[in-house]
Amino acid sequence: MDDYLNLFVEETSFYNRIVLGAFLPESWWGPLPHWFQGWLRNYIGGVLLYFVSGFLWCFYIYYLKRNVYLPKDAIPSNRAMLLQIGVAMKAMPWYCALPSLSEYMIESGWTKCFSRINDVGWLSYLVYIAVYLVIVEFGIYWMHRELHDIKPLYKYLHATHHIYNKQNTLSPFAGLAFHPLDGILQAVPHVVALFLLPMHFTTHIALLFIEAIWTANIHDCIHAKVWPVMGAGYHTIHHTTYRHNYGHYTIWMDWMFGTLRDPVEDEVKKM
User: Is the pTM here over 0.85, yes or no?
Assistant: First the structure.
């Protein structure tokens, strides 16, 4: 068992060498405890992903395609985006504690994670991913909904994110502009799922970081009309009504629990 758990340690050590080695002298990070190296690597990776994806996204939709996807009065001000960046950067060190904690639990053998796809086979791997995503979708839906329904949670945590409540205050940079505990709570289903079913370690870590890109996407206010994806058109309604479209990747949970509101139907009603 210890030999197998060492595979996870070797993998995270490999990631540490790639990321930390690219930005810092080894004499700075080499003596640090393994768990702290993991946190530092997650922090650097999270910051880079946030800024690179956010700037590229904003440059494309607000400048290269100006007035193509959004009318001029729906483009957020630079001040609004800087405010979102400030909130996200204050929370980022805390966000990175979650993947670091999940890595520690995996390396300690507390979860059902497996290291190599060949350990279970490709068919089982794909089935596990599908079930994992269903668990994550269900968990994030209810976590998000309770952050609205339980008034102290909304007042002290989730309201930080909902000051962005219309098109000209929403941007890809709002995707991570949460109170730190709010952002962690909404990502917790990713970790809970590790105790419920076997999951490939690298895929789990990748999906955690893909969250940053996904949340940037659903805050750009552009309705892509890709069924059954819970895209920005749906999420913009969430920011304006506060009572609909709590889902994350798809519309299924909102459809099942009666909170779905369709942006196309909304446009028809307005006409």
Answer: yes
